[in-house]
Protein backbone atom coordinates (compact mmCIF):
# COMPACT_ATOMS: atom_id res chain seq x y z
CA UNK A 1 0.00 0.00 0.00
CA UNK A 2 1.44 3.33 -1.08
CA UNK A 3 0.57 6.37 1.04
CA UNK A 4 0.02 9.23 -1.37
CA UNK A 5 -2.08 12.31 -0.74
CA UNK A 6 -4.55 13.58 1.82
CA UNK A 7 -6.13 11.14 4.29
CA UNK A 8 -9.05 12.43 6.35
CA UNK A 9 -9.59 11.12 9.89
CA UNK A 10 -13.35 11.44 9.93
CA UNK A 11 -15.28 13.20 12.64
CA UNK A 12 -18.30 11.42 14.10
CA UNK A 13 -21.49 13.46 13.69
CA UNK A 14 -23.76 13.05 16.72
CA UNK A 15 -27.36 13.93 17.36
CA UNK A 16 -28.41 15.89 20.44
CA UNK A 17 -29.14 12.63 22.32
CA UNK A 18 -25.60 11.34 21.66
CA UNK A 19 -26.58 8.81 18.98
CA UNK A 20 -24.81 8.60 15.63
CA UNK A 21 -25.99 10.85 12.83
CA UNK A 22 -25.21 8.40 10.03
CA UNK A 23 -26.90 10.55 7.40
CA UNK A 24 -24.59 13.40 8.38
CA UNK A 25 -21.60 11.06 8.18
CA UNK A 26 -22.72 9.85 4.76
CA UNK A 27 -22.94 13.44 3.51
CA UNK A 28 -19.43 14.12 4.79
CA UNK A 29 -18.02 11.02 3.07
CA UNK A 30 -19.58 12.03 -0.24
CA UNK A 31 -18.29 15.59 0.11
CA UNK A 32 -14.74 14.38 0.72
CA UNK A 33 -14.78 11.90 -2.14
CA UNK A 34 -16.06 14.61 -4.47
CA UNK A 35 -13.35 17.01 -3.27
CA UNK A 36 -10.64 14.49 -4.14
CA UNK A 37 -9.15 13.33 -0.84
CA UNK A 38 -7.12 10.16 -1.16
CA UNK A 39 -8.31 8.07 1.79
CA UNK A 40 -10.55 7.99 4.87
CA UNK A 41 -9.75 6.98 8.44
CA UNK A 42 -12.36 5.63 10.84
CA UNK A 43 -11.97 5.50 14.59
CA UNK A 44 -9.25 8.06 15.17
CA UNK A 45 -9.20 10.50 18.05
CA UNK A 46 -10.74 13.08 15.69
CA UNK A 47 -13.74 10.73 15.56
CA UNK A 48 -13.93 10.84 19.39
CA UNK A 49 -13.00 7.16 19.69
CA UNK A 50 -12.17 7.61 23.38
CA UNK A 51 -15.88 8.29 24.03
CA UNK A 52 -17.13 5.26 22.08
CA UNK A 53 -17.38 1.57 22.83
CA UNK A 54 -15.61 -1.03 20.71
CA UNK A 55 -19.00 -2.07 19.31
CA UNK A 56 -19.79 1.53 18.33
CA UNK A 57 -16.40 1.95 16.68
CA UNK A 58 -16.92 -1.21 14.65
CA UNK A 59 -20.40 -0.02 13.65
CA UNK A 60 -18.95 3.25 12.38
CA UNK A 61 -16.10 1.52 10.56
CA UNK A 62 -18.50 -0.87 8.82
CA UNK A 63 -20.73 2.02 7.78
CA UNK A 64 -17.78 4.01 6.39
CA UNK A 65 -16.38 0.98 4.55
CA UNK A 66 -19.74 0.11 3.01
CA UNK A 67 -20.57 3.70 2.12
CA UNK A 68 -17.18 4.28 0.52
CA UNK A 69 -17.64 1.05 -1.46
CA UNK A 70 -14.08 0.82 -2.70
CA UNK A 71 -13.91 4.35 -4.08
CA UNK A 72 -11.18 5.25 -1.59
CA UNK A 73 -8.98 3.29 0.82
CA UNK A 74 -10.48 3.03 4.31
CA UNK A 75 -8.13 2.77 7.28
CA UNK A 76 -9.52 1.64 10.65
CA UNK A 77 -8.06 2.96 13.88
CA UNK A 78 -7.30 0.29 16.48
CA UNK A 79 -6.05 2.49 19.31
CA UNK A 80 -7.36 1.43 22.73
CA UNK A 81 -6.19 1.09 26.32
CA UNK A 82 -6.80 -2.68 26.37
CA UNK A 83 -5.01 -5.00 23.97
CA UNK A 84 -8.10 -7.25 23.58
CA UNK A 85 -10.08 -4.21 22.43
CA UNK A 86 -7.44 -3.33 19.84
CA UNK A 87 -7.40 -6.93 18.64
CA UNK A 88 -11.21 -6.90 18.31
CA UNK A 89 -10.98 -3.73 16.23
CA UNK A 90 -8.20 -5.23 14.09
CA UNK A 91 -10.14 -8.44 13.50
CA UNK A 92 -13.23 -6.40 12.65
CA UNK A 93 -11.24 -4.33 10.17
CA UNK A 94 -10.08 -7.48 8.40
CA UNK A 95 -13.57 -8.98 8.30
CA UNK A 96 -15.22 -5.85 6.91
CA UNK A 97 -12.64 -5.52 4.12
CA UNK A 98 -10.82 -2.42 5.32
CA UNK A 99 -7.64 -1.55 3.45
CA UNK A 100 -5.36 -0.95 6.45
CA UNK A 101 -5.29 -0.22 10.17
CA UNK A 102 -3.90 2.69 12.17
CA UNK A 103 -2.00 1.33 15.17
CA UNK A 104 -1.07 3.53 18.11
CA UNK A 105 0.45 2.99 21.54
CA UNK A 106 -2.03 2.08 24.30
CA UNK A 107 -2.52 5.31 26.27
CA UNK A 108 -1.93 5.70 30.02
CA UNK A 109 -0.17 2.34 30.62
CA UNK A 110 3.23 3.77 29.54
CA UNK A 111 4.68 0.52 28.15
CA UNK A 112 8.38 -0.02 27.54
CA UNK A 113 9.44 -0.10 23.90
CA UNK A 114 9.66 -3.90 24.08
CA UNK A 115 6.19 -4.18 25.61
CA UNK A 116 4.81 -1.76 23.06
CA UNK A 117 6.36 -3.75 20.22
CA UNK A 118 4.87 -7.01 21.45
CA UNK A 119 1.47 -5.33 21.74
CA UNK A 120 1.74 -4.00 18.17
CA UNK A 121 2.77 -7.40 16.80
CA UNK A 122 -0.21 -9.07 18.50
CA UNK A 123 -2.52 -6.59 16.76
CA UNK A 124 -0.63 -7.17 13.52
CA UNK A 125 -1.30 -10.91 13.73
CA UNK A 126 -5.00 -10.28 14.36
CA UNK A 127 -5.42 -7.94 11.39
CA UNK A 128 -3.15 -9.32 8.70
CA UNK A 129 -3.54 -5.95 6.97
CA UNK A 130 -1.18 -3.11 6.04
CA UNK A 131 -0.35 -1.11 9.16
CA UNK A 132 0.23 2.60 9.63
CA UNK A 133 1.88 3.17 12.99
CA UNK A 134 0.78 6.21 14.98
CA UNK A 135 3.41 7.96 17.07
CA UNK A 136 1.78 10.54 19.33
CA UNK A 137 3.65 10.68 22.64
CA UNK A 138 1.66 13.76 23.72
CA UNK A 139 -1.44 11.58 24.06
CA UNK A 140 0.05 8.13 24.53
CA UNK A 141 2.77 8.98 27.05
CA UNK A 142 5.63 7.19 25.27
CA UNK A 143 7.39 7.39 21.93
CA UNK A 144 7.82 4.74 19.27
CA UNK A 145 11.61 4.86 19.49
CA UNK A 146 14.40 2.97 17.75
CA UNK A 147 13.94 -0.23 19.76
CA UNK A 148 10.26 -0.31 18.88
CA UNK A 149 10.79 0.55 15.21
CA UNK A 150 13.61 -1.97 14.79
CA UNK A 151 11.39 -4.76 16.13
CA UNK A 152 8.04 -3.86 14.60
CA UNK A 153 9.51 -2.56 11.35
CA UNK A 154 10.54 -6.10 10.42
CA UNK A 155 6.88 -6.99 9.82
CA UNK A 156 6.03 -6.85 6.13
CA UNK A 157 2.63 -5.37 7.11
CA UNK A 158 4.15 -2.21 8.62
CA UNK A 159 4.09 0.14 5.66
CA UNK A 160 3.91 3.60 7.22
CA UNK A 161 3.90 5.81 10.28
CA UNK A 162 1.80 8.83 11.17
CA UNK A 163 4.30 11.01 13.01
CA UNK A 164 2.60 13.36 15.48
CA UNK A 165 5.34 14.05 18.00
CA UNK A 166 5.95 17.63 16.87
CA UNK A 167 9.71 16.95 17.12
CA UNK A 168 11.33 17.79 13.79
CA UNK A 169 14.25 15.54 14.70
CA UNK A 170 11.86 12.59 14.45
CA UNK A 171 11.22 13.58 10.82
CA UNK A 172 14.95 13.47 10.19
CA UNK A 173 15.26 10.11 11.96
CA UNK A 174 12.46 8.49 9.98
CA UNK A 175 13.59 9.89 6.64
CA UNK A 176 17.23 8.88 7.09
CA UNK A 177 17.14 5.65 9.11
CA UNK A 178 13.74 4.09 8.32
CA UNK A 179 13.10 4.87 4.64
CA UNK A 180 11.24 1.55 4.24
CA UNK A 181 8.48 2.89 6.55
CA UNK A 182 6.54 5.54 4.66
CA UNK A 183 6.39 8.74 6.69
CA UNK A 184 3.05 10.54 6.87
CA UNK A 185 2.57 14.00 8.35
CA UNK A 186 0.59 13.91 11.57
CA UNK A 187 1.51 17.35 12.89
CA UNK A 188 -0.41 19.90 10.85
CA UNK A 189 1.80 22.92 11.41
CA UNK A 190 4.83 20.96 10.09
CA UNK A 191 3.29 19.71 6.83
CA UNK A 192 5.70 21.68 4.64
CA UNK A 193 8.70 20.27 6.51
CA UNK A 194 7.37 16.71 6.18
CA UNK A 195 6.94 17.13 2.43
CA UNK A 196 10.43 18.61 2.13
CA UNK A 197 11.83 15.50 3.84
CA UNK A 198 10.07 13.12 1.49
CA UNK A 199 6.66 12.44 3.01
CA UNK A 200 4.03 11.87 0.33
CA UNK A 201 0.96 11.89 2.56
CA UNK A 202 -0.74 13.96 5.23
CA UNK A 203 -3.27 12.62 7.72
CA UNK A 204 -5.04 15.87 8.55
CA UNK A 205 -8.24 16.47 10.50
CA UNK A 206 -8.66 19.90 8.94
CA UNK A 207 -9.44 18.23 5.62
CA UNK A 208 -12.85 17.34 7.08
CA UNK A 209 -13.86 20.92 6.25
CA UNK A 210 -11.09 22.30 4.01
CA UNK A 211 -10.22 19.37 1.73
CA UNK A 212 -9.37 21.42 -1.35
CA UNK A 213 -6.93 23.64 0.53
CA UNK A 214 -5.10 20.68 2.06
CA UNK A 215 -4.96 18.99 -1.33
CA UNK A 216 -3.54 22.20 -2.81
CA UNK A 217 -0.54 22.08 -0.47
CA UNK A 218 0.05 18.39 -1.20
CA UNK A 219 -0.15 18.94 -4.95
CA UNK A 220 2.17 21.96 -4.87
CA UNK A 221 4.86 20.22 -2.83
CA UNK A 222 4.61 16.53 -3.70
CA UNK A 223 3.06 16.39 -7.16
CA UNK A 224 4.75 19.43 -8.70
CA UNK A 225 7.71 19.99 -6.36
CA UNK A 226 6.86 23.69 -6.24
CA UNK A 227 7.93 24.59 -2.73
CA UNK A 228 7.77 28.29 -3.49
CA UNK A 229 4.03 27.99 -4.00
CA UNK A 230 3.92 25.47 -1.16
CA UNK A 231 5.40 27.99 1.26
CA UNK A 232 2.80 30.55 0.23
CA UNK A 233 -0.05 28.08 0.78
CA UNK A 234 1.40 26.92 4.09
CA UNK A 235 1.81 30.50 5.25
CA UNK A 236 -1.88 31.08 4.52
CA UNK A 237 -2.77 27.93 6.46
CA UNK A 238 -0.64 28.58 9.53
CA UNK A 239 -3.26 30.65 11.41
CA UNK A 240 -5.60 27.66 11.22
CA UNK A 241 -2.80 25.29 12.22
CA UNK A 242 -2.09 27.39 15.30
CA UNK A 243 -5.75 27.23 16.29
CA UNK A 244 -5.88 23.46 15.78
CA UNK A 245 -2.50 22.41 17.19
CA UNK A 246 -2.02 25.04 19.88
CA UNK A 247 -5.53 26.22 20.76
CA UNK A 248 -6.43 23.38 23.12
CA UNK A 249 -9.74 22.58 21.39
CA UNK A 250 -8.65 20.56 18.38
CA UNK A 251 -11.68 18.32 17.85
CA UNK A 252 -14.14 21.07 18.79
CA UNK A 253 -12.64 23.29 16.09
CA UNK A 254 -12.72 20.55 13.48
CA UNK A 255 -16.36 19.76 14.17
CA UNK A 256 -17.33 23.42 14.05
CA UNK A 257 -15.40 23.74 10.79
CA UNK A 258 -17.59 20.98 9.36
CA UNK A 259 -20.69 22.91 10.46
CA UNK A 260 -19.30 26.08 8.84
CA UNK A 261 -18.88 24.13 5.59
CA UNK A 262 -22.61 23.42 5.57
CA UNK A 263 -22.61 19.85 6.84
CA UNK A 264 -23.77 18.41 10.15
CA UNK A 265 -21.29 17.58 12.91
CA UNK A 266 -23.49 17.85 15.98
CA UNK A 267 -22.34 18.14 19.58
CA UNK A 268 -19.31 16.65 21.30
CA UNK A 269 -19.60 13.61 23.51
CA UNK A 270 -18.55 14.20 27.13
CA UNK A 271 -16.20 15.11 28.59
CA UNK A 272 -15.61 17.68 25.83
CA UNK A 273 -17.85 20.65 25.15
CA UNK A 274 -18.26 22.69 21.98
CA UNK A 275 -16.85 26.12 21.18
CA UNK A 276 -18.38 29.27 22.65
CA UNK A 277 -19.67 32.11 20.46
CA UNK A 278 -16.41 34.06 20.48
CA UNK A 279 -14.39 30.98 19.56
CA UNK A 280 -16.78 30.14 16.74
CA UNK A 281 -16.57 33.67 15.36
CA UNK A 282 -12.77 33.71 15.50
CA UNK A 283 -12.50 30.31 13.80
CA UNK A 284 -14.94 31.39 11.09
CA UNK A 285 -12.80 34.42 10.32
CA UNK A 286 -9.66 32.28 10.09
CA UNK A 287 -11.41 29.88 7.71
CA UNK A 288 -12.73 32.66 5.48
CA UNK A 289 -9.32 34.32 5.18
CA UNK A 290 -7.58 31.00 4.50
CA UNK A 291 -10.00 30.02 1.74
CA UNK A 292 -9.73 33.41 0.02
CA UNK A 293 -5.93 33.48 0.18
CA UNK A 294 -5.36 29.90 -0.98
CA UNK A 295 -7.81 30.38 -3.85
CA UNK A 296 -5.85 33.42 -5.01
CA UNK A 297 -2.57 31.48 -4.81
CA UNK A 298 -3.84 28.43 -6.68
CA UNK A 299 -5.43 30.58 -9.39
CA UNK A 300 -2.11 32.27 -9.95
CA UNK A 301 -2.81 35.69 -8.43
Automatic annotation (TrEMBL):
Question: Which keywords does UniProt give here?
Answer: Lyase, Schiff base
Keyword Lyase part of the UniProt annotation = yes
Where is coiled-coil annotated? none
Tell me where the signal peptide lies: none
Q: Which InterPro entries match?
A: Aldolase_TIM, DapA-like, Schiff_base-form_aldolases_CS
The protein's matches in CDD domains, at most eight in alphabetical order, are given as:
DHDPS-like (cd00408)
- UniProt xrefs under SMART domains: DHDPS
Name the SUPFAM superfamilies for this protein: Aldolase
Please give the family membership noted in the entry. Answer: Belongs to the DapA family.
| Name of the protein in question | Dihydrodipicolinate synthase family protein
Organism annotation: Paracoccus broussonetiae subsp. drimophilus
Amino acid sequence: MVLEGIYTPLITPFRADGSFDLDGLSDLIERLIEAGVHGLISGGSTGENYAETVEERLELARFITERTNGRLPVIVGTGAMRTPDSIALAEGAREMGADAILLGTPPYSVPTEQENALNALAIDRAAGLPIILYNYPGRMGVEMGRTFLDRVGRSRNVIGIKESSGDINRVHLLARDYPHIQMSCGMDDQALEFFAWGAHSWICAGSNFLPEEHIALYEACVVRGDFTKGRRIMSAMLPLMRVLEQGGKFIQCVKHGVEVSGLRAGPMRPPLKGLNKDEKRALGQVIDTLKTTVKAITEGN
